[in-house]
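Exercise 7.
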Amino acid sequence: MKTLLIICDGMPDSEDKDGNTPLSASYHPGLDFLAKNGFVGLLDLKYKKNADTDEGVLKILGCYDDSYPGRGYIEALATNIEIQKGDVCFRANFATLNNDNMLIDRRAGRDETGLEELANNLDGIEIDNVRFSVRRAVGHRLVIVMHRLDNKPLSWNIEPNDPKKTGVAVKQIAAKTPNGKTTASALNKFLRKANNILTEHSINKIRKIPANAILVRNVGHPTKTKSFEERYDKKACVIGYHSTIEGVAKFLQMDFIRPPGATGSEDTDLTTKTNTAIDALKNYDFVLLHVNAFDTLSHDKKRDEKTAFIERFDQLVVRKILDRIDLNKTTVAVTSDHYSNSLTKDYAHSTEPVPFVICGDGIKASDTKKYDEKNAMKCKVYRDMISFLV
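Solution. The predicted structure, written as tokens, is:
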């Protein structure tokens, strides 16, 4: 049996005053077909504090061991930065401060104008014997890698500066332990210098919303782990767009495919993604297809658009796949990495168990007629999904 696993980033959501979510309110006969003919449950990803895509996807793939390197390293793997033992890696955002140095936009308006050039202007800065390598990632994001020029190790025991809300001042980087003070000091100096460079850059004179600050969000360090093939004896690939997903693929030594027209937003070419996934099943035992727009729409509080995107996803991905594959030869599974709340004003991700469905030969159907959060909550909670798929 081959396996096609579809991860819908942040698709589960909170209920509105009428008890509906974008998933329950949408028309999705493809997902409902899987629910009626397959096995539905809840997957507890055992988040300790925050729910993030990299950790969630790794746990969906069965990586519950101690090899998690932090998201900064996962993101850095998707760049061409040379990463050495002892380096510290960060996932970061371009952001916007007003004249009073208050944070007014954590994503610089999602405006990508000139971000490549801005990142290039920050690359290679050296402070306190530390070199900062900077690369723009997708959208408003960038990756920062710190390397000591004397090759001594830096510490990843530091607290990032992202307050995860607007209308407040950006925090200073703080050391969690005494050995993190050197790293925190150098990073704070870099961020102040970056703020000055970005504020004065000509690109920010023409942008509607300036990208004049950097929010450091996630830290990580180089770590090795068993490959997906070593774990499960399956040749595997990942299909997606985001650097996070590419980094997960590289961490587990899975091939990564970015289809033409793929984006992390609602304008992504779902047909191309579907065709790529179906074609990949010819050459791989295990195919992971990642779709991100559910999460983006939640963060932007576009609940109606999220509902509409779920319907497009069902039509152009799920139903097309069901039309073109044989469920007696390929197991199809759908799940999510976390809830993503489109109603809250604050950070959208939450940690409750996520719905999943698995359909294929030998999979005993559960008594579920519709795929959504409320129906999944009637089913059993599991802490492992990958064992059903490999």
